[in-house]
Design goal:
Layout: H1 2-10, E1 15-19, H2 23-38, H3 40-51, E2 64-68, H4 71-83, E3 90-94, H5 103-113, E4 118-123, H6 130-137, E5 143-147, H7 152-192, H8 194-206, E6 210-215, E7 220-223, H9 225-231, H10 235-238, H11 243-247, H12 251-264, E8 266-274, E9 280-291, E10 297-306, H13 308-350, H14 357-386, E11 393-395, H15 397-411, E12 416-422, E13 429-431, H16 433-449, E14 455-466, H17 468-473, E15 480-489, H18 496-499, H19 519-529, E16 533-539, E17 543-551, E18 575-579, H20 583-594, E19 599-603, H21 606-615, E20 620-626, H22 634-644, E21 650-654, H23 659-667, E22 673-675, H24 680-691
Helix pairs in contact: 2-7, 4-5, 13-14, 13-16, 15-16, 16-19, 21-22
Length: 693
């Protein structure tokens, strides 16, 4: 214990330098800091004699105070004290000291001489803001600001705290040096023990994690059995290979991780890599820079854990939660589709009668408008239900807000008024469209449920700068430039005793069967995964406001749509094989093509289409086929057609937004996928494009 006390005393330092052009200030500091112990013995003795109170242990230090009246003079004194082995622990520096350096210039010079000097900047004027001061001196952890006229107790506390901080820093550095020495000794001992290294290598092979070592040229130098289990290559196969080429890491992501390791000594994050059998795996990687005895970088230790199944489970969870949201919209969607189908069903029989041309035009327009509305609703539901998570891309938040607003307008009760508020030049963000769509829709559904008797739902978007003060008031917030998406309702509000729990998984105030309590927790997780944060304020009298803050993607600008030149969409006698099991759709498609200069022949399924194509192989210029059909679906049909005629032109059509099928069709060389329901211009454009490319 005594050795510990002796060691602490070695680093005790109460030397204080005061730099101020006003001599009276120096006298003030001496009075304050000298008084710390000057009157203590007399006071203790008087208290003991009068009241019988034993003297308390001494807490205040005896400071050694030295003076400089200009910044340059102070810099010289700091340099001399450091050279003499008696450095100052701290300095009080005045802001204004004409005609020489001001306080900030002086501080920069002092830190250039003694980096660990603790400094209090004394000022009676607001020459600079706090941000400007920190920008000029570029250091914040060794600088405090004291406003004049200063308080005696405040000065004394600063002196005691900062000299103690100086002592602890020196002690910590000594401990770190000692620890470094011990580590180096231990490393040398381990290096000399070959048997122990082999034993440790055997234990490493028992680990489930994939552990590897790369040299600074990205060549693999070590590969444990865990890595073999995850990626498939044995150590003999992969040692010496380039990690980027073998594992097919994304060059930009790998480059950022490598740069971080070399700069900071470590990096942790997720990577998407490839296995020997060309499977995609997602891993969490922990990379550590390994140095040699001279402290020079030698290699990189990488520990990877396969989290592919975990990511798939997360994706399923998000999709299940989206489907729950769609379920809550079901009645609204059914109501709206019925309203869409009613005018179609009523208009179609009227077209069989003898009507005036203007009446025919009116009915046709009604049918087209209703069908387009129905197609929009189906597309929105499919996009939300089948969206693929994890695909981040630049996007304009206005489109996101308008899409959610459209769903609310078409499916929410009519006693809820939908309003919006945003500018047209919002900054771009980078994110997953489906997930962010899910966040806004969840918030809107909660708002709808809070207004059973009607009210107003307002969706707003704006650019918003979060400063440090604002960020300090919100849990999980950080400063920076964001796009703020707001969902405000005039509903029943959230009681204060519930507000702190609404983001907890499975917490819900809804009746059994009307909610799982996962909506808000999922929304929070999505927002945080995008680097943003979420805030909620509520009042039981006025309603609730949810605010989603998403970071602005620097350097991204919205591109104006490129107008394509009009092209002639009519045919010139080309023969098209139209394959679809829906007779009505096939008939209308054939009629449209025939009226625009094409010759058509129809088939009800893939098997019939193969038979027709085999008989007329030399006459058919293009095949238009549905993807989902009985007997033989479109993908099987395309496989068969490619075997017969590898370069046959094909246009596929589908009523489902299936990304897997889209990728499969592209692999078969089908570049054009026509989404149902399609109109005549889309059909003619797709056919014309496939025939002339």
């Amino acid at each position: 214990m005594s050795s510990e006390v002796d060691r602490i005393d070695v680093f005790a330092n109460h030397r204080v330098l005061v730099i101020d052009d006003n001599r009276a200030i120096h006298d003030d500091f001496r009075k304050i800091l000298s008084r710390a112990e000057g009157n203590r013995p007399q006071l203790d003795a008087a208290a003991a004699g009068l009241f019988g109170i034993a003297p308390r242990p001494r807490r205040n230090a005896a400071f050694v105070i030295e003076s400089a009246f200009q910044g340059k003079e102070g810099a010289v004194m700091v340099e001399q004290a450091l050279a003499a082995g008696q450095p100052y622990a701290m300095a009080f520096v005045d802001m204004r000291m004409p005609p020489g350096w001001d306080g900030l210039e002086t501080i920069a010079q002092l830190w250039g001489i003694q980096a660990d000097l603790q400094i209090v900047l004394c000022t009676a004027h607001s020459d600079y803001s706090l941000d400007q001061i920190q920008e000029k001196v570029e250091v914040a952890d060794r600088l405090l600001i004291l406003k004049k006229p200063f308080d005696t107790v405040e000065v004394l506390q600063l002196a005691q705290a900062l000299t103690e901080k100086w002592r602890l820093r020196r002690l910590a550095q000594a401990n770190a040096d000692e620890l470094t020495r011990l580590v180096e000794e231990r490393t040398a001992a381990l290096r000399r023990s070959t048997d122990e290294l082999r034993e440790k290598a055997r234990l490493i092979d028992l680990a489930n994690e994939a552990i590897s070592v790369h040299d600074l040229e990205d060549r693999i130098r070590f590969w444990n059995l865990g890595a073999e289990r995850v990626f498939g290559w044995t150590a003999e196969e992969i040692i010496g290979s380039d990690v980027k080429e073998v594992l097919q890491a994304d060059p930009s992501a790998y480059g950022l991780a490598r740069k971080a390791v070399l700069a900071a000594g470590e990096w942790r994050g997720e990577m998407e890599l490839r296995t020997k059998d060309d499977r995609k795996v997602v891993v969490t990687a922990s990379c550590t820079l390994v140095r040699d005895e001279q402290g020079q970088p030698r290699s990189i230790l990488v520990i990877k854990s396969d989290v592919t199944e975990q990511k798939e489970l997360e994706a399923r969870f998000l999709r299940a939660q989206r489907l729950e949201s769609i379920g809550t919209l079901a009645s609204g969607v059914a109501h709206d589709l019925n309203n869409i189908l009613a005018p179609i069903l009523m208009s179609a029989p009227l077209l069989r009668g003898n009507l005036d041309p203007q009446d025919v035009d009116m009915l046709v327009h009604t049918i087209e408008t209703s069908a387009r509305r129905g197609a929009d609703i189906v597309r929105q539901v499919l996009t939300f239900a089948r969206g693929v998570e994890g695909e981040r891309m630049p996007l304009q938040p206005i489109h996101l807000v308008r899409e959610v607003e459209r769903i609310a307008l078409e499916t929410f009760p009519k006693n809820i008024s939908i309003r919006n508020g945003f500018v047209t030049d919002l900054s771009m963000i980078e994110g997953d469209v489906t997930q962010l769509h899910q966040v806004l829709l969840n918030l809107c559904l909660n708002a709808r449920d809070s207004m059973p008797k009607g009210g107003t739902l307002t969706i707003e978007a704006e650019d918003f700068h979060v400063d440090e003060n604002y960020a300090a008031m919100l849990p999980g917030a950080r400063s920076g430039d964001f796009v703020r998406l707001s969902v405000r309702d005039t509903g029943s509000g959230i009681p204060r005793n519930i507000l702190d729990h609404i983001f907890e998984p499975f917490f819900t105030t809804k009746e059994i069967g009307k909610g799982t309590g996962l909506g808000l927790s999922t929304a929070l997780g999505i927002v945080e995964s995008h680097g943003g944060f979420l805030n909620v304020t509520s009042d039981v009298r006025t309603g609730t406001l949810f605010e989603v803050f998403l970071p602005i993607a620097a350097g991204l600008q919205q591109q104006a749509p490129v107008e394509e030149a009009a092209v002639a969409l009519t045919g010139n006698g080309e023969k098209i094989l139209v394959v679809d099991d829906e007779t009505g759709l096939r008939s209308v498609a054939e009629m449209t093509l025939q009226r625009n200069g094409y010759i058509t022949i129809g088939a009800g399924d893939g098997a019939e289409a193969i038979a027709i194509y085999a008989r007329q192989i030399s006459d058919i210029d293009l095949v238009l086929t549905d993807v989902m059909m009985p007997v033989m679906d479109g993908v099987a049909l395309i496989h068969a057609l490619r075997r017969i005629t590898p370069d046959v032109r094909i246009v596929a059509s589908s009523g489902q937004g299936d990304e897997a099928r889209r990728a499969e069709l592209k692999a078969l060389g089908v570049e054009t996928l026509l989404m149902k329901p399609y109109n005549s211009p889309k059909l003619l454009t797709a056919v014309h494009g496939a025939l002339h490319t």
